[in-house]
Specification:
This protein is mainly beta. The chain has 4 domains: about 25-70 and about 100-175, Beta Barrel (Thrombin, subunit H), CATH 2.40.10; about 185-290, Thrombin, subunit H; about 295-390, Pdz3 Domain; about 410-505, Roll (Pdz3 Domain). It has helices spanning about 30-35, 135-140, 275-290, 305-310, 330-335, 355-360, 420-425, 445-450, 470-480, and strands at about 40-45, 80, 100, 110-115, 115-130, 130-135, 145-150, 155-165, 170-175, 195-200, 210-220, 230-235, 245, 255-260, 270-275, 295, 300-305, 320-325, 340-345, 350, 370-375, 380-385, 385-390, 410, 415-420, 435-440, 455-460, 465, 485-490, 495-505. The strands form 5 sheets. Strands 2, 17, 18, 19, 20, 21 and 22 form a 7-stranded mixed sheet that branches. Strands 24, 25, 26, 27, 28, 29 and 30 form a 7-stranded antiparallel sheet that branches. The relative contact order is 0.11.
Length: about 500
């Protein structure tokens, strides 16, 4: 069993400067008293065999050892990431994923089981006095019936307004006999590491419980696609806190408490919340349409590396470079093209690759936004109209793979061949694929270190489309003649299309 040692050998305590003393709150009683009436318990009755939680957090009876929680699936890509972002906070190490749990679920006293159904208790908060409640989708997923328990003990039946399974957000409605006390969303982007926060929820079914702490980190990636910028806090979060609010010291919601990181299943001071800027945008869509409507512009992007910046004559390593543009997409209509670098989207600087998908998805569908670009060695601008994210295409059955004997040409540590029917079948290439196929990669070469592999297809070299090996060798010769030293290739892989810069030798 792995043991994670989090204690240092020596701790040095220093007195805080007197100038900082005013930042330490004297207490949280007044703030908590004003917020508690807006936080509710959410109870859902579910078939014992169908609950999402009982597949991940232990058995229904509460006797099972907590296991790895199934976090919400990756969000649909509006501006798809083609490679991990440079300089971003790394995802949770897979060695410790077994210690990642939802902050709600079976295997704890907040769940009771009887016969063929079970009751799961989570948390939520009121955002409209008429009876709109926000919670996590996994709190009510698979529910036969739902109820909301107010801070005064009143229980009200709840109905589902809409849910977002990708962002793990649900919007419920109750019909109270009198107006309820609502809270409001604040801007999670303004929250800083070290800021004080309050978490209020329903841990272990105990009812309204207040815990305090600070924001420990920003930008935590709990999903492989890195699309959600989780807030990490040391405020105690336990099972039953899922769906509850994380407040700042002004009493506005800056996150939804969703997951904990713990070997025991209890709080060890590492909890995670979905940022309010993402939540507020989704809730607005659920409230208006009953479902999420994510913005989409139809580009696949990757981070700008120093090599790519040099090849594109970009003054600094900034923005994201376009790898592909979907036909008929808003980006295509605005004449964006592979090799364009998106520096600014709708007034927001694109500082990392994972930032663009969030900015696009949060943009209202139908809105026209301004995009600042770097194109052909100079600044450019484009206006594009954000569209609805299209439904994912149905999966297709891969063609049977057959052996092929191409006549390769060695270059750049690669063995290359024109696209042939045999290679199309062997590597399951789409019927319209046009380019030059990589059939082998020399071990230890720069191409191998860049992650290139057999079956990848070179689409462009230095901005020029290639479909024959002779065109590749011609571009390499031109690069050497111009003493550029590096050549920029657009390479289509099995999962993504990306720009790769290789030395020409």
């Amino acid at each position: 069993m792995r043991v994670l040692l989090l204690a240092s050998a020596m701790t040095i305590l220093c007195a805080a400067p007197a100038a900082m003393a005013h930042d330490v709150p004297q207490g949280f009683a007044d703030l908590a008293a004003g917020l508690l009436p807006s936080v509710v318990n959410v109870a859902s009755t579910q078939p014992a065999s169908a609950s999402s939680g009982d597949q991940t957090d232990g058995d229904q009876s509460g006797g099972g050892e907590p296991g790895r929680d199934s976090l919400p699936p990756g969000k649909g890509a509006s501006a798809t990431e083609a490679a991990p972002p440079d300089g971003a906070a790394p995802p949770i190490d897979k060695s410790f994923e077994q210690f990642l749990h939802s902050a709600e679920g079976p295997g704890s006293p907040d769940v009771t089981s009887g016969g063929d159904q079970m009751q799961s208790l989570g948390s939520g908060f009121i955002i409209d006095s008429s009876g709109l409640i926000v919670t996590n989708n996994h709190v009510i997923d698979g529910a036969r019936s739902m109820s909301v328990i107010l801070s005064d003990g009143t229980s009200l039946p709840a109905t589902l307004v809409g849910r977002d399974t990708q962002d793990d957000i649900a919007l419920l409605r109750v019909h109270p006999p009198h107006p309820l006390q609502a809270v409001h969303f604040g801007s999670s982007r303004k929250a800083r590491i070290g800021d004080w926060v309050l978490a209020i929820g329903n841990p272990y079914g105990l009812g309204g419980t207040v815990t305090a702490g600070i924001i420990s980190a920003r930008g935590r990636d709990l999903q492989e696609d890195g699309s959600t910028d989780y807030i990490q806090t040391d405020a105690a979060i336990n099972r039953g806190n899922s769906g509850g609010p994380l407040f700042d010291m002004q009493g506005v919601v800056i996150g939804i408490n969703t997951a904990i990181y713990s070997p025991s299943g209890g709080s060890v001071g590492i909890g995670f919340a979905i940022p309010s800027d993402e939540v507020a945008a989704v809730v607005q869509q659920l409230r208006r349409y009953g479902k999420p409507r994510r913005g989409w512009i139809g580009v696949q992007v990757m981070g700008v590396t120093p090599d790519i910046a040099t090849a594109l004559k970009l003054p600094e390593t900034a923005g994201v470079v376009v790898a592909t543009v979907a036909p008929g997409s808003p980006a295509a209509a605005a004449h964006l093209a592979p090799g364009d670098v998106i520096l600014d989207f709708d007034g927001h600087s694109v500082g990392s690759m994972k930032m663009l998908p969030r900015l696009v998805q949060e943009s209202p569908v139908g809105e026209t936004v301004a995009v600042n670009l770097w194109r052909n060695g100079k600044a450019a601008e484009a206006d594009l109209r954000v569209a609805d994210e299209p439904a994912a295409p149905a999966p297709t059955t891969a063609a049977p793979k057959k052996p092929a004997e191409p006549e390769p040409v060695a270059a750049l540590g690669l063995t290359l061949s024109d696209v042939t029917p045999a290679l199309r079948s062997k590597f399951s290439l789409a019927s319209g694929t046009a380019g030059v196929v990589i059939t082998a990669v020399a071990p230890g070469s720069a191409a191998a270190r860049q992650g290139l592999s057999p079956g990848d297809v070179i689409l462009q070299m230095d901005g020029t489309a290639v479909s024959h090996v002779q065109e590749v060798t011609g571009q390499i010769a031109a690069s050497r003649h111009d003493r550029r030293g590096e050549i920029l290739m657009l390479v289509q892989g099995a999962d993504a299309t990306q720009w790769v810069s290789l030395a020409t030798g």
